[in-house]
Amino acid sequence: MMIVPSFEVVMRWLSQGQFPHYLCDQCHCIHVVDLQSLEGVLESRLFVENDGIMFTTELEIRPTALLPLVADLGRLNMNYPALKVFVDVVDDNLPRLMICDSLATAAGLTDEQLHLFMRTTIEATQQLYGECEQMGFLNPPDEAIPPGSAMH
Q1: What is the C-alpha separation between 88 and 50, in angstroms, rounded?
Q2: Sheet containing 52-60: which strands, arranged edge to edge?
Q3: What is the pLDDT of residues 97-107, one digit of tens each?
Q4: pLDDT digits over 14-50, tens only?
Q5: What DSSP assignment string belongs to 71-102?
Q6: Which candidate, 88, 84, 10, places its Cα nearest to that of 47?
Q7: What does the alpha-carbon distance between residue 2 and residue 131 come to, in Å, rounded to a whole number?
């Protein structure tokens, strides 16, 4: 049966599909444990909106890898057509690689469709993560720059 899923329905379907997750008090999103537990992943979460679900994962990027990564964005977006991949640079933080996927729900959705969306997005994001790790784009935890330090 197709329904427009509410936040609570999505939570129930994730549990039924055995997708480990938790709620965050600060952002009121559903965090996805399978991706959130990878080193260099700042956040991996689902936003449940009235007309769709957005799945985002943020990877912390080494500042010295920013230019090579930006040069490679076209290829990465072509290799992972279901994902939208872009760089977010904010003055106070290290650069982030944003990985997004979305699912329209306004016409209705089934639990099987959500499970397929979750599996395919997690797998594609894990593959992209592995590629970024292999290319040396990710910021290893031991090289993290302390907050408030200048990046030069």
Answers
A1: 25
A2: 21-23, 30-32, 41-48, 52-60, 96-104, 84-88
A3: 999 999 999 99
A4: 999 999 999 888 888 999 999 999 999 999 999 999 8
A5: HHHHHHHHHSTTSEEEEE--TTS--EEEEEEE
A6: 10
A7: 36
